[in-house]
Amino acid sequence: MPPLPYSSNNQSGFQAAHPQLHSYTELGGQKGTASIFLPEEVPVAFVYNGISQAVMMASPFDLEDLAIGYSIGSGLIKDAACVYGIEVTQGLVGIQLQISVSQRAFTKIKQLRRSQAGSTGCGLCGVESLANALPDLPVHPTRALPPAQHLSKLRSCLASHQLLAKQTGALHAALYVDERGEIKLCREDVGRHNAMDKLIGALLNDQRLPSNGFVVVTSRCSLELIQKAVRAGFSTLATLSAPTDISVSWARYCNLNLVHIPRSSAPRVYSPEPV
After folding, report:
1. C-alpha dihedral over 137, 176, 88, 13, to 10 degrees?
2. Domain segments of the chain: what residues?
3. DSSP character for 274?
4. Dihedral-angle region of residue 120 (phi above 0 means left; psi in -120 to 50 means alpha; beta otherwise)
5. Element (H, E) at 271
6. Which of 69, 72, 91, 136 is deepest in the core (most CB within 10 A)?
7. Contact 74/106 with Cβ under 8 angstroms?
8. Which tens digit of pLDDT belongs to each residue from 70-93?
9. Integer Cα distance of 194 and 217 in angstroms
10. What is the pTM assigned to this prediction?
11. Catalytic annotation, pick one of 82, 122, 157, 221
12. Distance from first CA to last CA of the chain, Å, rounded?
């Protein structure tokens, strides 16, 4: 088995070691052998009151944010007040997030419990039925779109906040933009759902209201990200890639503003529906 690439000295007990340097050869190229930094990816188990709920592959940092964000974004708990404590422990083959929750929350988790082993945080992997894949979501009041200038300038600003992606070139990011159009928080991960979960957790840990600004993700927009954004209370989700058709339908149903920011044209508003 390859060595596990993490150590124990961060906010939640673990900090990703510096990205590992790996060598490669260019097929038919002129450089011969070269080296590049690659991102880390480890199994992370979510354990609620001693009961394992899910295992996914994730980047081994900002794990307390991930624990809170995943719990809310997946509909397991209503808010961060349901979580009494988080302990991060290293196992033989991965990391365990020991999450202590209220008895009411734990009862709900046991009812929803399923085996979920996904690769790189695959959002619906392991869901037992179609009913669980398309759950009920809250319908929020209609909220205003961010100013156009806040959206138009985003692409040119993102790279300076994606520090790990700049080093490895292989990480997704979710970023929080406040009401003044300034990027205040960024979370990165090998999994796009994990990046969103980490951002949700970071916002709550930082005592920021998701509805006061908006979130932008560097990945494609699928239904799972719509679900997480709605559950967290975001008013607007902006994406760098076009959304899927079902994502647009659910965003409109839940009154989540959904905006695609193309590389070379003006932002495209899919939700609310044009009239």
Report:
1. 180
2. 148-271
3. P
4. left
5. strand 268-271
6. 69
7. no
8. 999 999 999 999 999 999 998 778
9. 11
10. 0.84
11. 122
12. 57
